[in-house]
Design a protein that fits this description.
Blueprint (H helix, E strand, L loop, with lengths): L1 H21 L2 E6 L3 E2 L5 E6 L4 E14 L2 E7 L8 E6 L4 E6 L6 E2 L4 E7 L6 E10 L1
Antiparallel strand pairs: 1-10, 2-10, 3-9, 4-7, 4-8, 4-10, 5-6, 5-9
C-alpha cells in the first residue's frame, strides 16, 4: 500500500512540474504610430523576465524604401549581441520577421529594432509578439 502511494505521489509531482514548465503567457508590444523623418529610429523592448520572441512586424502608412534591422542587445555584453534580421530596402507597406529557431531572452536582454530613413515622411508602427516563460 505504501509503495502504491509513493508511486502515485511521484507521478503527481512529475505531472505538475511538466505542466508548470509548459505554461506560457502571450504578450504584444507596440510603438504606436511614428512619423519617419531623416533620422534613424531605434526602438528598444526591455526584458524584465524570461520570454520568447515569436515575431516582429512593421506596418508603414505607404510603400517605402526603409532599411530595417532587428537585433539582440545582450545583458552579457557586446560579444553576445546578435543580429537576427536585416533588410536593405523594404519597398513594402508591411515587413515581417519570424525567427527560424527559438529566441529566448533573459532578464536584462533587449530587442532593438532600427528603421533607417528612405524617402521619409511615412508613419509606421512596430509590433513585437512573444510569450512570457
Amino acid at each position: 500500500m505504501k509503495l502504491k502511494f509513493l508511486l502515485f505521489l511521484i507521478l503527481a509531482l512529475t505531472c505538475n512540474t511538466a505542466f508548470a514548465q509548459s505554461f506560457t503567457r502571450p504578450f504584444e508590444e507596440s510603438t504606436g504610430s511614428n512619423v519617419h523623418t531623416t533620422n534613424t529610429f531605434t526602438w528598444t523592448s526591455e526584458t524584465f523576465g524570461k520570454r520568447e520572441i515569436n515575431s516582429v512586424g512593421i506596418h508603414f502608412s505607404a510603400e517605402t524604401n526603409e532599411a530595417v534591422k532587428v537585433y539582440l542587445d545582450s545583458n552579457l555584453g557586446a560579444t553576445f549581441d546578435t543580429v537576427y534580421a536585416t533588410s536593405d530596402s523594404v519597398a513594402l507597406t508591411d515587413w515581417y520577421w519570424q525567427p527560424d529557431n527559438d529566441v529566448i531572452l533573459e532578464a536584462g536582454d533587449n530587442i532593438r529594432v532600427t528603421v533607417d530613413p528612405g524617402s521619409g515622411g511615412e508613419a509606421f508602427t512596430i509590433i513585437l509578439k512573444g510569450e512570457y516563460r
